[in-house]
Design goal:
The protein is an alpha/beta fold and 448 residues long. The chain contains 14 helices and 18 strands. GO terms for molecular function: hydrolase activity, acting on carbon-nitrogen (but not peptide) bonds.
């Protein structure tokens, strides 16, 4: 007997080639899709049957770069100084917040960020974490929240020397290795683990060559890819030229940190030559339009040249419908040449990133046999014909997170008819508010 049978629904594939299949069925057994297509449910009995009439089924969206701890920053009341440039924003806001985090606040930020993502139809999240006062065990606290909500998540600790030099960098590296080993042990025991690890780093301007060497050792030891901010602002590039006499990516390349598992983030100030370099080495690059606009760091002119671009939020929530729309309109405002199909392709490529992070243990991103049952049911009634040829246009211009009716992750109905199936949302958010006030008070006491 199947676990879930979705009947008579319209399937919409969000990876090229975009296809629309009306009147289809989807059979889910365990954590994967067993059958999908017209007539696939004939003669099938299931524990749960969902009538998909008038609904649309899509693969879950993926946020390719998030900062879960930002979930507690919304409306943060602290006495911040001037924030007229990128470094001031970091010092006066984010670096005070991350120094105020502890185990409880990390856990609740993970719960809240995961729930908000699921509610918006996001089933996979790639997180990037920092908590200098609580490093060891921090990634396990994030994974705990992710798994209790039920999302497929990847996390890492951002290695940096900005507070305590090489000792801080070493502590961050050790946490990345510890967490990766924890995931390996669980997988070896036969557990279908929802979370995975990468090796995190803040940005080259807060990392010495010694720290980059430690990062290479960590990626080699764990078999994981590097997840690092690069050239978010021109300051990062200038720093590299000033102190190391080289471009950022050339410096990372000297330490063999650029390969097909590497996730670079932002890249606003990368040169065209550096884009060629990241393409040659098969790196992913996460575009975060809202965050770039908020921090006033400029627009990445070579986005269309990146072969493995993905879409992230950089901590601006987990709503990828919203992020994609804003990214699309910003591109047009900047005289860009990308169209809805380009953006939907980039968004759906986040599934390729997930597969890379999960190291072949799972397949993501299609409504097809053998793929993880990470699916979203939309109550979107197209006002014009929905065809394979215009599916991307409907996604960008018409569909939104308000259309998300139910979310299935790893074969489990996590969110049904606009409600979480196994979580006390009111209690979790009440506790999160309590924790946030405590964190704000601590952040306010920290000098920039």
């Amino acid at each position: 007997m199947a676990d879930i049978l979705i009947k008579n629904i319209t399937l919409m594939e969000t990876q090229p080639p975009f296809t629309i299949t009306e009147g289809a069925d989807v059979v889910i057994t365990g954590s994967v899709i067993e059958k999908a297509g017209v007539g696939a449910g004939a003669g099938i009995e299931a524990s749960k049957v969902i009538d998909g009439s008038g609904k649309i089924l899509i693969p879950g969206n993926v946020c390719a770069h998030h900062h879960y701890y930002s979930a507690l920053s919304r409306g943060m009341l602290i006495s911040a100084g001037p924030q007229t440039d990128f470094i001031q924003v970091l010092k006066e806001w984010w670096w005070r917040l991350d120094r105020a985090l502890d185990e409880e606040s990390i856990y609740y930020s993970s719960l809240v960020a995961s729930m908000e993502a699921v509610r918006a139809g996001t089933t996979g999240i790639v997180d990037h974490h920092a908590s200098p006062a609580f490093i060891k065990g921090s990634l396990s606290a994030i994974a705990k929240g992710m798994e209790e909500v039920g999302v497929h998540g990847v996390t890492c600790y951002e290695v940096t020397e900005r507070n305590d030099g090489i000792n801080e960098a070493l502590a961050g590296v050790n946490e990345n290795i510890r967490f990766a080993s924890e995931i390996d042990r669980r997988a070896e025991q036969g557990e279908d683990v929802l979370t995975e690890a990468m090796i995190g780093a803040h940005a080259p301007f807060t990392l010495s060559d010694e720290a980059l060497g430690l990062l290479f050792d960590a990626t080699t030891e764990t078999g994981r890819g590097l997840h690092i901010h690069v050239a978010e602002d021109k300051y990062d590039s200038i720093w590299s030229h000033h102190f190391y006499g080289d471009d950022i990516l050339a410096r990372l390349c000297r330490f063999n940190l650029l390969d097909e598992k590497t996730l670079l983030v932002h890249g606003v100030a990368l040169s065209e030559k550096e884009v060629d370099m990241l393409n040659e080495r098969g790196c992913f690059l996460a575009h975060n339009a809202r965050s770039n606009m908020n921090n006033h760091v400029g627009y990445f002119p070579y986005l269309s040249k990146v072969k493995k671009s993905v879409i992230g939020t950089d901590g601006c929530g987990g709503n990828m419908f919203e992020e994609l729309k804003i990214a699309f309109f910003k591109n047009k405002d900047a005289s860009g040449s990308w169209w809805p199909a380009d953006y939907l392709t980039s968004l759906s490529r986040g599934n390729m990133l997930l597969e890379s992070a999960f190291r072949g243990r799972a397949r993501f991103g299609r409504i097809a046999p053998g793929y993880k049952a990470d699916l979203v049911i939309l109550s979107y009634a197209p006002p014009t014909p929905l065809k394979s040829e215009n599916a991307a246009t409907h996604f960008v211009w018409g569909m939104c997170s308000e259309n998300v009716e139910s979310t299935i992750i790893n074969g489990r109905l996590v969110y049904e008819n606009h409600h979480f199936t196994a979580l006390d949302e009111e209690r979790i958010f009440r506790e999160a508010r309590r924790v946030a006030e405590r964190v704000w008070a601590e952040a306010d006491s920290i000098k920039a």
